[in-house]
Design goal:
- The structure is a homodimer of 592-residue chains.
- With 592 residues, chain A is of the alpha/beta class.
- Helix content of chain A is 28%, strand content 24%.
- Among the domains of chain A are: 94 residues, Beta-grasp domain (Ubiquitin-like (UB roll)), CATH 3.10.20; 69 residues, Roll (Ubiquitin-like (UB roll)), CATH 3.10.20; 139 residues, Nucleotidyltransferase, domain 5.
- Chain A has 14 helices and 26 strands.
- Chain A is globular and about 85 Å long.
- At the A-B interface, α3, β7 and α4 of A face α3, β7 and α4 of B.
Chain lengths: 592, 592
């Protein structure tokens, strides 16, 4: 096969393509994701490119019509209709590119490990053998015969769609089978195998973050984040499950709000990539147990009373149509398995993202969301617990709190008599997000605006952050209680294992803080143990990173389910010791 | 354990029961099925019995109240509240008995083989371990731990129902898990394991017959038959699939009419047995391919054009709620697997009912419904074909035809210059059903009212059956074409196998005729081959008998699916030879 050089502008990217390669595919492969909205059928006109040099042949009448309709200048072609047959210089207009990934705030980013792409969701484009009078084999059986495996479990929907996909019966035509494990989910007319999308979702109490992922390449096409609309029923989990239990209307509202948020995020992802929702055949949701129960309208009654067991921990994958999802209704929704009660699928997903079990050593993993979940890995043994931290670290529930969006103070340092602020987006400060909050409190402690017991000593009993931005005594108490809860959890897990902080090889901090948390300040306030700086690692939103891994790998799914079953759970609320430890933990002092 | 004697009246049935046995259960076991409508909770008062002799103890206050409310005479008890502790004489009032099985017309009866009861649908009543603070295991996992196997696939419905079954969470209470294979279908509060019902249905073109079956004992509790309401869209299959293809409204109407009929039959079965529809967790439907496609709203487009393949042959089991069934919506509907095109699940079920493969020899199996399906078993080799017979043999499509209900002439013989008639129900003749039709034509041939080519020679070109009942030339032609189609099919299957009729060890006739068909007359008209009388066997509605076997036995289901895949199909329409044979077969003459 002869190779042809392609020079891609802007950016002067050089690529090679085999003779006959579809130009749109070649550009995609070269890291220039061209919009393929109409699945390379030359219909939508979204993949316009200019052939600045080289011979790309002539458009056929159908393409010419599309080009004319779009008012395309000379030497412009639909990339999806060009077969590369010689060296080319191609200029891609901005409008033809799929917007680049990770345009969302930095918090979506985080630790990402590379995994082999082996998703349960697959598409097979096949051309079944035609039937004959002597062997009038049914359409479905002829489809099976054309697939790489023989036995499938078809859904009722797939059978109905098969009739629609190829009328009057599969004969000469190509169809695409959408399978999930052994299940046949859907049958689409034509070859749609180039369009296999999945949605990875971190269903957080405060925010919902998601990535739209190409299941064939494993590439994240775009990421988005949004405030969880469930907030109107209460900022923290306890107030939401209490509301859901008290009133069926609240339970229904919480269920609807969860999907409203997820669907809004999905809709933005699809808008940005010019891709259709029908191509999203699998969604992985990672969230804590209560959030998942609420999203499915499942009873949270047992979570509000001792011994606080949940209705279910490992859920079956559901049809999207059975949930409130706006993705393809015959697609699947998989839930990262909960470990126990308040240690949910966000944690099992997080541990999977970090592949915590493969490495040696003793690791303390802390997820600082609205709940504070803590996992101790002591060699081959995993133990976990949870504490109700409240949403202070996520910037909520404070008089001046906000998530880490534009206008949020994400970092602060002492300057002269006051503070130097770093604001997301660079404008005027509007509020404080978690990392900014920690910095402000650390400076307040250092400067004597506040004492170790959390009493504000500054004039007016407020800590001034900006002309119209201040922390009050109630705000400080909120943070103090949240920090003490997490600290107590860490101490009790370590004690139960007979370990000191010095025995730890690593402290991994996941959650809302992102990369802007100042470790020195967090240590100073006692939020994380005073182990060496080199042992502390910020790993970002591991729940989302884990949802991505679970979406892309069937074997990782099995590992995660196994881990969720094995991990030991400790209930903090069960001993008087918790109260003692909690009171000890209330001061803003370093500890180890 | 000591045994106590129970004398049951009326009928002087003697039974024994272990000390402490529930009296209602003892009566049930003795073949006196007492109504257990409220699941033995002493609430409904439907199991009233008189204790004519012996000591049955005293009713507790709750039972006394029910007895008083029902105006029960002295010495009357609720059988479900009596623990047998000594010898008893019990008189059961008619109203307390579940109406005996097979009150439906005789056509529902037929060949029944005994099989080991091993259904995929089971109920387990369990008492899960309570959760603890240190191990807040989810409700679902604790339910699993109490079940005989560990791994289950719960349906979304089962999880929702689990929350309702035991609020606020399973603790001390008994719940009943309803499972199907590895699937957890439902969770019911309390012990409902005594109530495991299934519905076996023969979805015929003309009639729908069904049995309500106790899945624990394998007993048929009641049977019913009804005219298929799809008839308003056409009496035969071809007119129905043509209508469905031409008009979406007709397709929707045919789908609705199928379930309307099935549900009406189910409703009558439940009324007669005082049992709730929610207890019916599995339905098995046996029907021809087109009937099943129409009932599910699946496209029949491919069945109307060469090569006449169907959309699907082996369907997955569906949730009842996905179909139009009025049984428990989370229960399953299983479809007997189609063999190919017009040889459907009614035939695979029939062959399973007859266990055709286990015996030795050469068997010709003929199902004479609206379609004529023919199967030849030649040692270990099965071959099948189908012919469009039309509904004449089922008594439809004739000027004076009717199904074998009250008023139908079911048999006729020559008497003096006219006919002696046997009428279903004994009253005046209203019309002719299939078996009566054959008799009348045989007499007409013998008496010279009609010649072998089917021309009516009698005065007025009619064959008088009763004062207001006669067959015209068009009626005879209809029967003649149907008979010729079936005859041609039999001949071609035998020819293809290189067999003569003398080689056959048995000719099995299934279908609408029931036990009233006169074999001599059928042979005289050439409807069945003139093999020895001892080789011909009427096996009745084998489709329904097969649905029952498939409902009661998971292993038989697997065998049936395997058989349906293996059996060879011959298409009659594919050769010019068919036409020649068909014309030869048009005379009313015996053949072998």
């Amino acid at each position: 096969m002869s190779l042809h050089r392609i020079l891609i502008q802007p950016g002067a990217v050089e690529a090679e393509a085999e003779d006959g390669t579809n130009l749109a595919e070649a550009l995609f492969a070269a890291g220039r994701p061209i919009s393929l909205y109409c699945r390379k059928r030359g219909v939508c006109g979204k993949c316009l490119v200019e052939i600045a040099a080289g011979d790309a042949g002539c458009p056929d009448p159908a393409e010419s019509e599309v080009l004319a309709r779009r008012g395309a200048p000379a030497r412009t072609r639909l990339a999806c209709r060009v077969a590369v047959s010689g060296p080319l210089t191609v200029v891609i207009p901005e409008a033809s590119l799929i917007p680049s990934a990770f345009a969302a705030p930095g918090r979506v980013e985080g630790f990402r490990r590379s995994i082999a792409v082996d998703p349960p969701l697959r598409k097979y484009a096949v051309r079944p053998e035609p039937p004959s009078l002597q062997s009038p084999v049914s359409d479905l059986e002829r489809l099976y015969a054309a697939l790489p495996e023989e036995r499938w479990e078809p859904s009722a929907a797939a059978i109905r769609r098969l009739a629609a996909a190829a009328r009057p019966g599969i004969s000469e035509s190509v169809v695409t089978a959408v399978v999930h494990g052994r299940a046949l989910l859907d049958v689409e007319p034509g070859d749609t195998s180039g369009l296999q999308l999945g949605l990875a979702v971190d269903l957080g109490t405060t925010t919902v973050a998601a990535e739209l992922i190409d299941l064939e390449s494993g590439r994240t096409l775009a990421a988005e984040i949004s405030i969880n609309a469930q907030g109107r029923f209460g900022a923290d989990i306890v107030s939401r499950i209490t509301a859901a239990r008290a009133e069926p209307a609240a339970a229904a509202g919480l269920q609807a709000a969860a999907w409203e948020t997820i669907n809004a995020v999905l809709s933005r992802l699809l808008d940005r990539t010019s891709l259709p929702s029908s191509a999203v055949y699998e969604t992985v949701l990672a969230g804590n147990t209560a959030m998942i129960h609420l999203a499915l309208g499942l009873s949270v009654a047992t979570l509000t009373e001792a011994p606080f067991q949940s209705l279910v921990s490992a859920l079956p994958a559901l049809s999207a149509g059975e949930t409130g999802s706006a993705a393809n209704p015959v697609g699947r929704v998989y839930f990262a398995p909960a470990i126990k009660s308040f240690v949910g699928g966000d944690i099992s997903a997080g541990l999977t993202a970090m592949d915590i079990e493969s490495g040696p050593g003793r690791i303390l993993f802390i997820d600082l969301g609205t709940n504070g979940e803590i996992v101790l890995k002591n060699g081959g043994r995993l133990t976990c617990t949870s504490t109700a931290a409240g949403p202070a670290f996520e910037g909520m529930s404070l008089s001046c709190g906000m998530i880490a969006g534009p206008g949020a103070v994400q970092a602060a340092a002492a300057r002269d008599g006051g503070l130097a602020l770093s604001v997301v987006g660079g404008g005027s400060p509007i509020g404080l997000c978690g990392s900014g909050l920690i910095d402000v409190l650390a400076v307040a402690l250092e400067r004597g605006w506040m004492d170790e017991s959390g009493v504000i000593l500054a004039p007016g009993k407020t800590i001034k952050v900006a002309p119209s931005l201040a922390l009050g005594q109630k705000d400080v108490r909120e943070v103090q209680l949240a920090a003490a809860a997490v600290k107590t959890g860490m101490r009790m897990l370590l004690q139960e294992a007979g370990l000191a902080t010095d025995d730890l090889d690593g402290v991994w901090i996941a959650g809302a803080f992102g990369s802007t948390l100042d470790i020195e300040n967090a240590v100073r306030l006692g939020l994380i143990p005073a182990v060496g700086r080199d042992k502390i690692r910020f790993v970002g939103n591991t729940s989302l990173a884990g949802a991505r891994v679970l979406l892309l790998s069937d074997p990782e799914r099995a590992r995660c389910e196994d881990l969720a079953r094995r991990i030991r759970h400790i209930s903090l609320a069960s001993g008087g010791e918790f109260q003692d430890r909690f009171v000890e933990s209330l001061t803003f002092t370093p500890w180890r």
